[in-house]
Amino acid sequence: MTDPIADYLTRLRNAIKASHRIVEIPASNIKKELTKVLFDKGYIQNYKFVEEGPQGTIKIALKYNPQTKENAIVSLSRVSKPGLRKYVSKDSLPRVINGLGIAVLSTSKGVMTDKEARVEGIGGEVLCYVY
User: Fold this and answer.
1) Which end of the chain, N or C, is less surrounded by CB atoms within 10 Å?
2) What is the three-class DSSP state of 55?
3) pLDDT tens-digit map of 57-81
4) Which residues, other chains included, contact 124 with Cβ-Cβ below 8 Å and sequence gap of 6+?
5) Torsion from C-alpha of 19, 75, 14, 43, nearest 10 degrees
6) Cβ pair 104, 128 in contact under 8 A
7) C-alpha to C-alpha distances, 126 to 4, 34, 86, 87, 95, nearest whole angstrom
8) 3: Cα within 13 Å, side-chain hemisphere
9) Is the pLDDT assigned to residue 1 strictly greater than 80?
């Protein structure tokens, strides 16, 4: 697999389109951190790291609105790709839908959102946009 983060986002996107409640994704450290960020910002309902096999899996419970049955995640888009990395400085951090969405960054202090990176005063690699 050349791009595990794109695979992670695609599995989430496909599960949302199929209205699944739970999706299982092969685990890695960056995927675990990305899952924690999505949970902290309220885009997923819950998650569980299952340590079985060589790498383990991540079980993610997707979040749906009880009345309209719409998912909390409207769009997931990969920004930095293995063929073309996108790095930003602290002065040029992106704003997704004028602050309504989040940009997930991989920084020297770990995986965090654009808002947290602004507070910390650091830049990094833009992994994806979520709204």
Assistant:
1) N
2) coil
3) 999 999 999 999 899 999 999 999 9
4) 87, 88, 105, 106, 107, 108, 117
5) -60
6) yes
7) 15, 12, 6, 6, 11
8) 16
9) no
DSSP string, 29-54: HHHHHHHHHHHHTTSEEEEEEE--TT
Angstrom distance (rounded) from CA 52 to CA 66: 33
Report if pTM > 0.85.
Answer: yes
**Amino acid sitting at position 58:** I
pLDDT tens digits along 22-38 = 999 999 999 999 999 99
Tokens at residue 57, please?
Answer: 């899996």
Residue 119, SS3 per DSSP: helix
Whole-angstrom distance, CA of residue 63 vs CA of residue 39: 10
Concatenate the DSSP letters of all residues of 69-112 into one string: --BS---EEE-S-SSS--EE-GGG---GGGGTSEEEEEETTEEE
- From residue 22, alpha-carbon distances to 12, 41, 131 in Å are 9, 18, 19
